[in-house]
Amino acid sequence: MSENKRAIVSTEDNPHPRPLPAYREREQKTGASWWGMGALLMVGVAGWLTIGRGIIDWPNQVAAAMSAVAVAILVLIPAVRRVAVELTRAAGRRLENRAGMTAVVVAIFSAAYFVFTAMRQGRYLHPHWHDELSYVIQMRMLAEGKLWMGAHPVG
Hints:
It is a single chain. The protein starts with a helix and ends in a 12-residue tail after the last helix. By secondary structure, the protein is mostly helical. The chain contains 6 helices and no strands.
């Protein structure tokens, strides 16, 4: 009985439906919020560079800064942005229901990035603090399949 009383609204009754006023207000506010976020981002970056001493080694950081600016400018070109968005969507479609594969890909890229930056900065990549050496002992124990060991005879 309640199904018969329900009115079905179709586009035939109203061939030119207009969006609700709330949607129009949201669209108008969106542009202003993007400009506001961009301005705040620029102020934050400028503060980090000047007050926070973001630029420590100017000759080595110029290339990275210029690359970031070049990418930002390229993204402003509609054709380049379209290609970037399509590549991102294609990667998203390929990894859509594959959380494990996505985690592996992110882990590989992260590990490669960390090793690259550590080598580029000339970091010592071997354990040399007492905490790090205790981690080596724990890894060796786990590699042997032991979750715990007996007490040391001298200790």
